Amino acid sequence: MFNLDISQALSTLSIAAVPALLGIILHEVAHGWVASRCGDPTARMMGRLTLNPLPHIDPTGLLVFGLTSLSGSFVFGWAKPVPVNPRYFRNPAKDMMLVALAGPLTNFILAGIFGVLLWLTLNVFPPVEWQHSSLYIFALKSMQAGVIINFGLGWLNLLPIPPLDGSKVVAYFLPLNAALRYLSIERFGFLILLGLLFTGLLGTVLGPLVGGSARGLLTLLGIL
User: Fold this and answer.
1) CA–CA separation, 4 and 67 (whole Å)
2) What would the pLDDT profile of 31-47 be if each residue is shown by its tens digit?
3) Which residue among 51, 142, 153, 206 sits deepest, i.e. has the most Cβ atoms within 10 Å of its Cβ?
């Protein structure tokens, strides 16, 4: 029984690895690219506008990703945050909001791309003819995971909990003093997230958002 569980866990990890790493890395690259477009060269000068995963990997975030993938529950992880210096921005409040939105938007686009790839695969290579191919089944599961994981990353980062991206969006619409007080709870943000994760509240909030988005996309594509 133990070997079966380990085998299933490793299978889940291998299926989730590529779409999750793509989602996490491109999320950060998008932040840096938009910041560069808004006048901040920091990410570009530090070599963070690259698809090479090595400059983006955070060992702790990678470990958490592996553990949560193996658990078969909520997949969670992160890369090194891209450095952003708002002093370069022409309109600091607005540009910071745009930089924050770039990451989740990239994840939503990736979810759409994985959905389209899934649709193409099912139509070009009908399951009836390829159902006995382990590589085919692995590819289908990986593309399905790409849809779910990237919707999950997008909605997770839009939660209004500092330092998540959603907090930067909320701060843009607050008066300056209120925004500064709100963002000051960033030092407790990770603890708040852990509390929500272990109490199950994080899944309660994200589950309908992720599930509804995935079902909506797959229904639109005619897969469901």
Assistant:
1) 17
2) 999 999 999 999 999 99
3) 153
Torsion sign across C-alpha atoms 186, 190, 193, 198: negative
Residue 146 CA to residue 115 CA, distance in Å, equals 8
Rounded Cα distance, 171 and 186, in Å: 12
Q: Is the dihedral of CA 57, 99, 84, 169 positive or negative?
A: negative
Give the CA angle between residues 79, 211, 134 to the nearest 5°. 75
- Name the token pair of 88: 């370069």
Q: Do 56 and 109 touch, CB atoms closer than 8 A?
A: no
Query: What does the mean pLDDT of the chain come to?
Result: 89
Which of 9-13, 157-161, 166-170 has the least mean pLDDT? 9-13
Cα(101)–Cα(95) distance, rounded to whole angstroms?
10
* CA angle 113–26–224, rounded 5-degree value: 25
Q: Please give the backbone phi and psi of residue 51, each rounded to the nearest 5 degrees, phi first.
A: -90, -5
Enumerate the β-bridge partners of residue 79: 57
> How far, in Å, CA of 38 to CA of 91, rounded?
8
Look up residue 81 and give its DSSP letter: P
Q: What is the pLDDT of residues 166-179, one digit of tens each?
A: 999 999 999 999 99
In terms of phi and psi (left: phi > 0; alpha: psi -120 to 50; beta: otherwise), the region of 9 is alpha
What is the CB-side half-sphere exposure of residue 16 using CA atoms within 13 A? 26
